[in-house]
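Could someone model coproporphyrinogen III with this protein?
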Amino acid sequence: MKTLRNDRFLRALRREPVDRTPVWMMRQAGRYLPEYRASRAKAGDFMSLCRNPELCCEVTLQPLDRYPLDTAILFSDILTIPDAMGLGLRFVEGEGPLFDRPIRTLDAIRRLAAPDPEGELRYVMDAVRTIRGALGDRMPLIGFAGSPWTLATYMVEGRGGHDFAVIKKMMFDEAEAFDGLLSTLVESVSTYLAAQHAAGADALMIFDTWGGVLTPESYQRFSLNPMKRIVERLAKTAPGVPVILFTKNGGQHLEKMADTGCAALGVDWTTSLADARRRVGGRVALQGNLDPITLFAKPERIREETARVLADYGHGPGHIFNLGHGILPQTSPDHAGAMIEALHQLSPAYHQR
Ligand code: CP3
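Reply:
Sure, complex below.
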């Protein structure tokens, strides 16, 4: 196994001692950075940026050159899989993602096939290989995918969801067909993540952005169980690679999520890290959980809130500092810097023995 100069993030995932709390930000390469906006203008649109491994590498490294962060995350999107399935993905300014051919019938579900990671999705693997090469032994790289449930919401609704009426009706009226859709996505996400690991990703994260809109019973069947099957598959196809599960608004499900065999759980700001640690901290690492809107406040308040998140988790290993969800495009880069600086100053005290 290669040795990294900065392995704090991987050590924290294994709940091993570190000198200070590792930090990264969800969506750390993104529109809040002027250098990102310049790279994106070179590419044209967002998917052209994702399809260009050199530019993906450039934007992945931008936040690392600006801030003392502890891990890189692949620049890509969760919607690469449904795009590769032929659903016709477009990003419309101000509207977010749209699919020209959403999945609405049993027939359409039956026709779906898992994309080949080194075929239709080769551009993603090329981006992982390019970024891995550029990082060298500097720090780890996170690969990622959407959860089957979250991907299904976009594929069935055809767009970002509001009340999720279309997909929930399908879930109620055609539960078996719907299980078939999720199985195809389990297969797709498992092979996609294993291929990212083979291409050089050191850790893997599953974004379940919309698991929190389900009843507890539906969450278990349609969101958690497919993620568990992926973690189990990866234990065979990518043995030893740490997997982070993040269900937004999933605070009530942490115990069941920890039972999947994953290494860590992402926690949003609606759950306290102290509570999360009491419940599952003996079994998994925890990643989070500053409310991203905090970065709109004055730097003194950002520092206080960073201190509060650190104190909330408390002493000892197993914490990866992050926002509770993606950094917003309107965020001042200086305010993100203030959070990271505060973390660097305040967190060593939590790791003294
Ligand atoms: O964290 C990182 O820096 C890695 C990059 C990353 C992106 N998307 C880049 C991106 C990651 C991890 C994602 C995941 C993603 N994509 C999720 C789940 C994560 C979460 O926050 O819960 C979801 C739901 C998507 C789907 C998606 N892609 C949406 C809703 C949007 C925003 C559309 C809009 O117009 O606001 C995207 C586009 C996207 N993905 C951008 C970035 C930087 C913005 C694209 C741009 O306009 O330049």
